[in-house]
């Protein structure tokens, strides 16, 4: 019975003690997160090279399944910035049909990871690797939005980072002043509004306000309507991709990359949610839900989906108590799609570019670089290699090399902390001084056990973990 319970989604477990007060809190949180997710879903799709509705379909379908079937009570799923670069690369090589197949394959891989218990293994990926990915992806996404931010009148932007930056430098003189003004205005609203109130999502206010100004003044700027023809209203149609056996081998590296990024980000988001809400997620159930969501998303014209840290944090801070909040978030987006889709064609691309610039800054984890630079030369080298490969090379290569470096770094650390020696009576007696076995521990001494081979984090995080042990005069860490 316990084995069966271990595979139940968090939504089922929470409903056992669900109350009307819980639903009221989840309803308010879900409505708020849904409004926050609206511009983000569109902007992630546009940055990836897809029409804006692809992001909305992903947030609706993927977000619903991740909340309904996942192992984290507070997780909010949908499109994220981590996928932007790899999706653009897949689209350039294999097109939309190739992306759909990659997403389906990644979903199957995620389900396999969850069913085989590999969810717990993701937490052992070294922090320098994940920070290197995050830093590099943030810079790459920001570089793709410079064209829209300044309203540059230039041809197709190169896919590689360095050629793209060269093209931007050459075309900077052809900027559109009205587009730049809207982008700067969007930034100002997003950065300044939270100083007065945090009840209203700043990104929604910025998009509505700048869209109204652009429409009222008839500014000559590129909009969703001028580039994509608007967003179709109504339910998305089911599209069944055609899978040929000959396509599996070429698409497998990209599918592995998408699956690994989805696993890392979703479980990191779940860990953040646990820390903020005091809950505990089920890694394997979460990965199975992520897999099912990635299988369903391309069937409705969507893109890869995973847990979104920023939206999950917003969900918790707005008072969410269960996965019902995530379900409400998906339903909110569906209602907005059905009711307000025709209005989306007026949104300036410069405004969405400014929104994504803020997202890139927030997702970059730039403060972690200072902590990385205090680590050993091996950690710094792993971070630098992962970061440079992410920015200057293909992300698939960066993930593959990053995983190899992660394994080598793990082996290096194990070798540093492991000794092989002959066990003699003198050796055993000499080690008894450091062992608590067969010794009486005074009642005023607390014992804190750090799980896993490593403890990642600063002394501040350790202090938070031991905050409830302050009444003890001494803490023994084992």
Description:
This protein has 478 residues and is an all-alpha fold. It has 2 domains: 2-363, no CATH class; 431-477, no CATH class. It has helices at 2-5, 10-15, 20-48, 52-69, 84-115, 127-144, 146-150, 161-171, 177-196, 202-216, 224-228, 245-277, 283-296, 309-317, 324-340, 349-363, 367-372, 377-392, 395-417, 425-431, 459-465; strands at residues 77-78, 306-307, 445-448, 474-477. Helix 3 (20-48) packs across helix 16 and helix 6 packs parallel to helix 18 (377-392). The radius of gyration is 24 Å and the shape is globular. The model is unreliable at 450-462 and 465-478 (pLDDT under 50).
Kindly list the characteristics that best describe this protein:
single chain; 478 residues; mainly alpha; 2 domains; two-stranded antiparallel sheet; two-stranded parallel sheet; 21 helices; globular
The stretches of 5 or more residues where confidence is low (pLDDT under 50) are: 450-462, 465-478
SSE order, as H and E? HHHHEHHHHHHHHHEHHHHHHHEHE
Mean pLDDT: 84
Approximate strand percentage: under 5%
The radius of gyration is 24 Å
Summarize the helices and strands and which ones pair or pack.
Blueprint: H1 2-5, H2 10-15, H3 20-48, H4 52-69, E1 77-78, H5 84-115, H6 127-144, H7 146-150, H8 161-171, H9 177-196, H10 202-216, H11 224-228, H12 245-277, H13 283-296, E2 306-307, H14 309-317, H15 324-340, H16 349-363, H17 367-372, H18 377-392, H19 395-417, H20 425-431, E3 445-448, H21 459-465, E4 474-477
Parallel strand pairs: 3-4
Antiparallel strand pairs: 1-2
Helix pairs in contact: 3-4, 3-5, 3-10, 3-14, 3-15, 3-16, 4-13, 4-15, 5-12, 5-13, 6-16, 6-18, 9-10, 9-16, 12-13, 12-14, 12-19, 18-19
């Amino acid at each position: 019975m316990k084995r069966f319970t271990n595979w139940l989604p968090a939504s089922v477990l929470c409903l056992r003690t669900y109350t009307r007060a819980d639903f009221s809190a989840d309803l308010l949180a879900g409505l708020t997160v849904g409004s926050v997710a609206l511009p983000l879903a569109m902007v992630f799709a546009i940055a990836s090279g897809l029409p804006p509705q692809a992001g909305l379909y992903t947030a609706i379908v993927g977000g619903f399944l991740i909340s309904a079937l996942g192992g984290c009570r507070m997780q909010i799923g949908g499109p994220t910035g981590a996928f932007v670069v790899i999706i653009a690369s897949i689209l350039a090589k294999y097109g939309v049909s190739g992306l759909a197949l990659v997403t389906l394959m990644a979903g199957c891989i995620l389900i396999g990871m969850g069913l085989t218990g590999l969810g717990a293994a993701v937490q052992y990926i070294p922090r320098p690797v994940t920070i290197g990915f995050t830093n590099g992806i943030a810079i790459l996404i920001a570089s793709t939005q410079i064209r829209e931010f300044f309203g540059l009148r230039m041809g197709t932007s190169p896919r590689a980072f360095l050629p793209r930056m060269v093209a931007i430098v050459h075309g900077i003189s052809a900027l559109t002043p009205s587009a730049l003004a809207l982008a700067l205005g969007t930034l100002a609203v997003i950065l300044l509004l939270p100083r007065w109130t945090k009840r209203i999502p700043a990104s929604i206010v910025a998009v509505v306000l700048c869209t109204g100004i652009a429409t009222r003044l008839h500014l000559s700027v590129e909009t969703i309507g001028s580039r994509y023809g608007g967003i179709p209203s109504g339910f998305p149609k089911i599209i069944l991709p055609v899978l040929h056996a000959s396509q599996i081998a070429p698409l497998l590296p990209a599918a592995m990359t998408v699956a690994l990024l989805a696993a890392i980000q979703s479980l990191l988001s779940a860990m953040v949610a646990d820390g903020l809400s005091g809950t505990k997620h089920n890694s394997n159930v979460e990965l199975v839900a992520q897999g099912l969501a990635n299988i369903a998303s391309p069937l409705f014209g969507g893109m890869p989906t995973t847990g979104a840290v920023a939206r999950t944090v917003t969900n918790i801070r707005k008072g969410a108590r269960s996965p019902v909040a995530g379900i409400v978030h998906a339903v909110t987006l569906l209602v907005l799609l059905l009711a307000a889709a025709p209005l989306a064609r007026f949104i300036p691309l410069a405004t969405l570019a400014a929104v994504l610039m803020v997202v890139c800054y927030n997702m970059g984890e730039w403060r972690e670089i200072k902590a990385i630079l205090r680590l050993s030369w091996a950690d710094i080298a792993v971070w630098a290699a992962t970061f440079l490969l992410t920015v200057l090379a293909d992300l698939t290569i960066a993930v593959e090399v990053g995983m190899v470096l992660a394994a080598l770094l793990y082996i290096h650390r194990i070798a540093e902390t492991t000794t092989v020696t002959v066990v003699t009576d003198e050796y055993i007696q000499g080690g008894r001084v450091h062992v608590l076995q067969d010794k009486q521990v005074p009642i005023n001494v607390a014992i804190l056990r750090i799980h896993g081979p490593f403890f990642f984090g600063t002394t501040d995080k350790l202090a938070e973990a031991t905050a409830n042990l302050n009444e003890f005069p001494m803490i023994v860490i084992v």
